[in-house]
Amino acid sequence: SVGREAAVRASRALARRVARAKGGGSHAHARASLSFRDAALALGRRLVAAAVLERRSDALYLWMEELADALRGEPGAYAARVRLRREDDARWARFDAPLTLGDPRERDR
């Protein structure tokens, strides 16, 4: 019917607009993430030179506020924080996520 075809066309147009918007947002997010990564690695290099961190990539495990504190010379166990967070990442990497969520008893019904 004509009404149904119009609804399908409108749905397709809306889907295209949403896809374009999401793609643009994803691209901007990826660019921002890469910029932050580059900046964090540059700060990490400075913190390695100051003997605060062991590797420049350690900076990726610190919050922005922690990086700022470390650069100001604020005392903090930054290397220890990084080690704990790396261990946490390794633990999560071994975690097998369930295929479904919810109460397993509900799935059997």
Describe the structure.
- The protein is mainly alpha-helical and 109 residues long.
- The protein has helices at 2-49, 64-71, 78-93, 104-107.
- Helix 1 (2-49) packs parallel to helix 2 (64-71).
Short descriptors:
elongated
Ordered list of secondary-structure elements with their pairings:
Elements (H helix, E strand, L loop, with lengths): L1 H48 L14 H8 L6 H16 L10 H4 L2
Helix pairs in contact: 1-2
Q: Termini separation (Å)?
A: 40 Å
Total number of β-strand segments? 0
Strand content: under 5%
Largest sheet: none
Weakly predicted, low-confidence segments: none
Approximate helicity band: 55-70%
Mean pLDDT: 85
- Compute the number of helices: 4
The backbone outline, from C-alpha atoms, is elongated
Please trace the helix and strand order, writing H or E for each element: HHHH
CA-based gyration radius: 23 Å
Q: Which class do the helix and strand fractions yield? A: mainly alpha
